[in-house]
Amino acid sequence: MSPETQVKAKKIVKKYGKRKTESVDTKKKVPEFVPAKLKKADDITVAAIFEQDCCGCGVCAEICPQNAIQMETDAEGYAYPQIDTDKCVKCGKCLKHCPAVQVKYENSKEPESYVMMAEDEIRRKGSAGGCFTLLSNVILESGGYVCGAAYKNGTSVEHVLIRKKEDLDQIHNIKYVKSDIRAVCPEIEKLLKKGKTVLFSGVPCDVAALYAFLGQEYENLITVDIFCHGLPSQEMFERYLKDSFPDKEVESVKFRNRGAFGWANTISVYFKDGTSFFERSSTNAYLRAMFIGLSRRPACSSCRFLAIPRQADISLGDFWEAGDIKREYSDGIGTSAVLVNSEKGKKLFEVVKTRMKMVQNIELSKLLDKSRREGEINKPNGAHPSRKRFFQLLETSSFKRATEYSLRGKYDIGIIGLWYGRNYGSMVTYYALHHELTSMGLSVLMINNPLSREGDTMTKTDPRRFAREHYNISPIYPMHKLKKFNDLCDGFIVGSDQLWNYGLSRIYGQYYFLNFADDNKKKIAYGTSFGKSEYRGPEPYRELSAYYLQRFDAVSVREEFAIEMCKNVFGVDATWVTDPVFFCKKDQYAKIENVRPECAEEPYILAYILDPTKEKTEALLNVSKRMNKKVKVILDEAPGQRERNRQNMRIPAGAPIEILNEVDLPEWLYCFDHSDYVVTDSFHGTCFAIIFQKNFSAISNKKRGSLRFASLLGGFGLLDRLTEDATTIIGHPMVEEPIDYVKTEQLIDAQVEKSREWLRNAVFSEKKVDNFTVFPMVDKRR
Predict the structure, then answer these.
(1) What's the domain range around 35?
(2) Per-residue burial over 498-512, b = 16 or more CB atoms within 10 Å of its CB, e = otherwise
(3) For labelling alongside 333, which of 34, 142, 417, 572 has CA 20 to 30 A away?
(4) How many angstroms separate the Cα of 145 from the Cα of each of 7, 137, 472?
(5) The whole model's pTM is what?
(6) Which tens digits make up the pLDDT trace of 9-53?
């Protein structure tokens, strides 16, 4: 950066980066707002603005002399500036005119506050108490212009300039859609320079954006900001209309339709075939998502323009609770709350007061206390806790469903299993199953361990950290409250892991057999395992487990021998499916890898060993010598096992073997992906040697179920890679013989596709339930 640019950057930051507002002396504490912090203090473009601070006004794009900035929408449908670095000359103009940086708090810190009503005829046509109509009339009568949000082509919203009273209907009514002000800003500037009076109205960030665009004060500009909840984007609005009325062509939309519902928050949609749709905010998905903050732009949740002093000369909005102060303040037609923030605003408001049916000055603190519910006057409401999930659901669900499931905390599927287990196999198994289900468009909740407690050490492990990054995780409900999950999930999937191994499951009762799930819930077992070829649970436990297992809609198992066990021991038909880890290809796993430095330096052999012995170490030394490569070892690091495992390796001094410590799952995947050869006594280690198409030697592990090794490798035509003991590897030609993965890949793909189809059918097949109503019930969406 040149010295001149550095000086310019410092001036901009100094001028626009340090102002603070003071709190209003009211009963409630008001937060202090400050201009947006920059990513880099020496960056003089809007690239320095964090996304959560950008209101998407587009002033930077409009002001750029090089046309180097374009507004592009993200996955949520909100626009952000993107800079063409080839065109950008680093003039700093975009940052200088960014409202997020140039926040002004120059108006009164104790504005005059009023409750008012216009004449009934005006209020029945406009919104709230009709204050904006009266303000507009005064300006138009004096030859000035009025600017506000209007519909274009029936549903899109942008700001327009009005110079005749008969055109005011375009901007009178509320538009619960974020308007585009870019095109009108240059027009306003031209009018102001010609000496014309302009009344501009918009939400607070619109007003701030206009000031930022102009860059100077104009006595003939009067601004009005509207109490704001945070408006959804145009894309969000169009998505709602498309989802809600797929077979209709929308002609126009109207919020607050006085003719249909009176003074109330409503939406009215008119179609070109002459039909229409009306709904109140209490049931309408679009309005519910907006008012509660699900669809709110990130910057709206911490809006720096919703503060007193306000940005505009006058602030106004509906005062729904006016009648709570005095009965005569509300007659059901509409009442406005008004803040007069500046001398310019006061002069105009004094003229307008003479035209009002009722106007009464009230204490600011009383106004703030009473009107907190209906609008954000002095501080923004934060984002709804389910906002992120709302946008996740929008990727695969309708707008209404995304709203309902977000607000009610509902999910299509709850996964029950050992996703929190401190071993790589469990972690990656549930990652793959979760990924497959979400790829089907399902919302998934990972059911927490009912025997754990919030805040204990088990919630701070690597699996838990990984889970928080990738999943939606349920609250912890103890065993006696598990039925609460019926309110959260439409169905449950058990597996895949040794969840029906009696030695593991007994402390959970019949939890892993879904004893808590209602009969109207889908109950599926995917690739669940008994761990052993013979069931050893006591008869009373087996009988009760069989009862619950027979209520499942679909049962599949991980090992082929378990099919017969399910039939003979539990009386259910089961299907063999492949391990979930094969649902994801190596490219998908590569997306969540993290570099392990020791495995990025040189070629190496990876040894993933669960149960180390002297013989396994000798085998590793033999493979190392034959391949002339060092060995990187990952051990089972379960608590209480680490030191013992290290000792059991019995690595000779100076041996080319290095044990890697504290390897998390993303690093574990990286180690497999970048290895030259794999030696493992782990079932899932064998799976990932295959997934990453590595040459490998698998050591049958009787302690952890040797039958599944043979089942896995036999099915993929790789049984010759399995050894009964580690010593067999010494001198075995498989070390030098490469695997032809072309045929193996075909076998894997065929098995995976059959398993995927089984899972899809299990999830989406018709659910038959006992219906005790006297009338039949049919899903109206079908």
Answers:
(1) 3-96
(2) bbbbbebbeebbbbb
(3) 142
(4) 40, 10, 51
(5) 0.80
(6) 444 334 433 333 333 343 444 445 667 778 777 788 888 888 888
